[in-house]
Amino acid sequence: MKALSVKQPFAWLIVAGFKDIENRSWSTNYRGTVLIHATQKPDREMMEDLGPFCKAAGVPVPEIVNGAIIGQVDIVDCVTDDGSEWFDGPYGWVLDNPVEFTEPIPAKGALGLWEWKL
Fold it and tell me: What is the pLDDT, as a whole number, of residue 117?
């Protein structure tokens, strides 16, 4: 199965259904389900914004897990423009059907779309 490594808290925002687009510097023709891997190192600046974001969204602040597969999502399109608040390009991978796993799966990530092997 394909996997994509994403820094926290963006990985959680994806699998929790808040972030509907993933920005990348390259396009993809891949369409289908991908596992979301939370990288070992988070985005420190965005981690500081997570508490206020959760409060505004009316959800509890999650326990952030790093270095693990935390869920899955479907890539349904790749665009160069989008009305999503999350889009800042140059390419946006449009995401749908997010699923947050109840038990993270420890894993080392990789660049690009990579193959997860059990």
Answer: 84
By residue count, the chain amounts to 118
pLDDT tens for 5-55 read 999 999 999 999 999 999 999 999 999 999 999 999 999 999 999 999 999
Average of per-residue pLDDT across 56-64: 93
pTM listed for this prediction: 0.94
Q: Cα separation of 91 and 1, whole Å?
A: 22
Integer Cα distance of 113 and 94 in angstroms: 15
- Asked if 28 contacts 113 with a C-beta cutoff of 8 angstroms, the reply is yes
How would you write the chain as a 3-class SS string? CEEEEECCCHHHHHHCCCCCEEEECCCCCCCEEEEEEECCCCCHHHHHHHHHHHHHHCCCCCCCCCCEEEEEEEEEEEECCCCCCCCCCCEEEEEEEEEEEEEEEECCCCCCEEECCC
d(CA 93, CA 89): 9
